[in-house]
Amino acid sequence: MALRRILCNSKILTSANFNCGNSRSVQTLSLPDLPYDYGALEPAISGEIMRLHHQKHHQAYVTNYNKALEQLDSAISKADASAVVKLQSTIKFNGGGHINHSIFWKNLAPVNEGGGDPPKGSLSNAIEKQFGSLEVLVQKINSEGAALQGSGWVWLALDKEFKRLLVETTANQDPIVTKGSALLPLLGVDVWEHAYYLQYKNVKPDYLKNIWKVMNWNYATQVYEKECI
Ligand SMILES: [Fe+2]
C-alpha cells in the first residue's frame, strides 16, 4: 500500500512510532496503479468504466480518507471527542472503499494474462468439496450479488479459523472484515452501479455473468494457499 507522510505539529506525542521532534506524522494513502491498462478487460468491462472507476471513484475514497485523517489528527490534538466520533463513519466508508477497490483490481486480469481461467489445485479442491462445483459457487455469488439491495459487495472469503470458504455480502464500502475478524477476502465483486452501469445499464445480472470472463483466480489461489498450505 503506497503511503505518503504529512507532518503536523502536535502537543500530544505519546507513541515512539509517531515521534519526530515536535511533530507527529500521519500516514495517508495514495491511489495504487492498476496492474493492467484500462481497456485490457474489454469486452467484459469497458475501458471507460475502468478509467472512471479507478481515476474518479477510487481516487475519491483515497482523497476523502486522507482528509478525514488530517481532521482526526486535529481533533485528537484538541481532545475533541465529539469530532473524533463524528469522523468514524467517514473513515470507515472511504477507508473501506480504498481497501475493497485495491483488492478488486487484483481480482481481475486480462484474458491473455489468465483472466477467466478456472482455479486450480487446493482452492479448486476446496470449492468442489464445499460447493459441489465451480459453477455452483459462481451461481451462488451471482445470485447474492443480484439480490443485494442498494450498493455493496459480494465476496468469496476464507474463514481462517475454520479453514472454510464462504460467500458473504457487505453493504456500502464495508470491508469483509466487518463480518468477522477471521475472514480473508479471496475475491470481491463490486456491485455498485458505478462498476457496470455505463456498459450494462440496469442489467446487473449480465455484468455478474461477464465478470467471470476476466476473474483472476490465480490471485485468489495465491491468497488461499498462503493461508492454508
Ligand atoms: Fe467501485
From TrEMBL:
Its cofactor is Mn(2+). Residues 119-221 form the Manganese/iron superoxide dismutase C-terminal domain. GO terms for cellular component: mitochondrial matrix. PROSITE patterns: SOD_MN. Keywords: Manganese, Metal-binding, Mitochondrion, Oxidoreductase. It is found in: Mitochondrion matrix. The keyword Magnesium does not apply. It catalyses: 2 superoxide + 2 H(+) = H2O2 + O2. It holds the Pfam family Sod_Fe_C. GO terms for molecular function: metal ion binding; superoxide dismutase activity. Residues 30-109 form the Manganese/iron superoxide dismutase N-terminal domain. Its EC number is 1.15.1.1. Mn(2+) binds at H53, H101, D190, H194. Transmembrane segments: none annotated. The keyword DNA damage does not apply. Homotetramer. Belongs to the iron/manganese superoxide dismutase family. Destroys radicals which are normally produced within the cells and which are toxic to biological systems. Destroys superoxide anion radicals which are normally produced within the cells and which are toxic to biological systems. This is Superoxide dismutase. It comes from Penstemon smallii.
